[in-house]
């Protein structure tokens, strides 16, 4: 259970702050919802409180996890299927876990693959979405600007390819 003001991460939308709890009537049933302000797009989303576990909402990473993420980003490319379709599905499953370490693996591998031989349009979009989700979490953790964080991520990954 979270509280108002908690910084959280939605596995498919990125990081945000719980602004309030609202009671809403949905199909004749009253339910409590977290109203969450997402940091990157500035949009509000509502999540039924009884569905947070199923959806994979979690607290923002701590500083120790951030250091692990940085090490992953600066590491070598992992094994990936050669077929882009299989690779896409495998990466999508990693993203859906909601684990920021898995997200870092996806960002690093797709970034390096793009530098090496290019990505399909779908994989380019996946890389961008995964990177934005990671950026949103670091933004909320460190109270920094998105562009600065994106440059840092790019530099960490590029260092390994040189």
Give a topology summary.
Layout: E1 7-10, E2 14-26, E3 29-38, E4 44-48, H1 52-55, E5 58-59, H2 63-73, H3 84-96, H4 100-117, H5 121-142, H6 146-161
Antiparallel strand pairs: 1-2, 1-5, 2-3, 3-4
Helix pairs in contact: 2-4, 3-5, 4-5
Describe the structure.
The protein has 162 residues and is of the alpha+beta class. Helices cover 52% and strands 21% of the residues. It is built from six helices and five strands; from the N terminus they run ββββαβααααα. It has helices spanning 52-55, 63-73, 84-96, 100-117, 121-142, 146-161; strands spanning 7-10, 14-26, 29-38, 44-48, 58-59. A five-stranded antiparallel beta sheet has the order 4-3-2-1-5. Strand 1 and strand 2 form a beta hairpin. Helix 3 (84-96) packs parallel to helix 5 and helix 4 (100-117) packs across helix 5. The longest helix is centred in the C-terminal third of the chain and has 22 residues, at 121-142. The model has no long low-confidence stretch (mean pLDDT 92).
């Amino acid at each position: 259970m979270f509280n108002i003001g908690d910084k959280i991460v939605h596995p498919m939308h990125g990081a945000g702050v719980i602004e309030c709890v609202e009671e809403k009537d949905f199909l004749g049933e009253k339910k409590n919802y977290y109203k969450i302000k997402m940091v990157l797009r500035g949009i509000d989303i509502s999540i039924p409180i009884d569905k947070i576990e199923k959806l994979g909402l979690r607290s923002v990473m701590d500083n120790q996890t951030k250091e692990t993420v940085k090490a992953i980003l600066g590491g070598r490319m992992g094994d990936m299927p050669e077929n882009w379709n299989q690779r896409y599905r495998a990466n999508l499953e990693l993203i859906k876990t909601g684990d920021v370490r898995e997200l870092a693996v996806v960002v690093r591998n797709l970034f390096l693959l793009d530098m090496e031989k290019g990505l399909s349009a779908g994989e380019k979009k996946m890389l961008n979405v995964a990177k934005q989700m990671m950026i949103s979490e670091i933004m909320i953790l460190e109270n920094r600007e998105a562009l600065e964080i994106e440059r840092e991520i790019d530099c960490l990954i590029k260092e390994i390819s040189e």
